Amino acid sequence: xxxxxxxxxxxxxxxxxxxxxxxxxxxxxxxxxxxxxxxxxxxxxxxxxxxxxxxxxxxxxxxxxxxxxxxxxxxxxxxxxxxxxxxxxxxxxxxxxxxxxxxxxxxxxxxxxxxxxxxxxxxxxxxxxxxxxxxxxxxxxxxxxxxxxxxxxxxxxxxxxxxxxxxxxxxxxxxxxxxxxxxxxxxxxxxxxxxxxxxxxxxxxxxxxxxxxxxxxxxxxxxxxxxxxxxxxxxxxxxxxxxxxxxxxxxxxxxxxxxxxxxxxxxxxxxxxxx
Length: 275
Prior knowledge:
- By secondary structure, the chain is an alpha+beta fold.
- It is 20% helix and 26% strand.
- The radius of gyration is 24 Å and the shape is flat.
- The mean pLDDT is 91.
């Protein structure tokens, strides 16, 4: 079946943290579906099970477990090969559905001891806190980054933890969200008047504006026009590379549409047999 149109993508900027691209010749609903899938249904790995063997810090077990869960973990090389724990045949945890982490720190001197993600050790070298990524490599493409503070210890205090990271997506919990922000704009000069500015001169022009005259702040109203060009900006938290967020999001949306088509054909077939 031929498609009504063939969308095109042009990448304008790509860094370790975000990607900017233009999506053309498609509908506003499709662009928004891609945005929502990248945020809510792109899987990553995050801490989902924590056992405290010792905790004499000022923070409660629940508070620390939540802080550990929100630490972004590198997922690029491992998440697609992992299974969701609900689909795994193991009884508890196994390498196919979980990654084990350990944390064992005790403060024995007068100086305050900062417990950070550098103390959070992973059994799988491919899945580590994003701040620890590439430190052991001679050429670290990500550069140095500050470790995330988990808790502070005083003399005599101790924290010993065993935790497991699992595969999930942000529809279940925000800790699996691979994005810091996903946005797009489709009318940089406000020709469609989807936004009404009381004083257009007080608003900054878009970086994608086509108006060169400094004294003109928005385009003439075009009531017949439809959104056709979308300027995306996808910023990741570090668990996935920004380009992987986009590619995986599109793959997931494609699979959802394929499943819908399969189920619809099955329903039509069953109805035909009933008749």
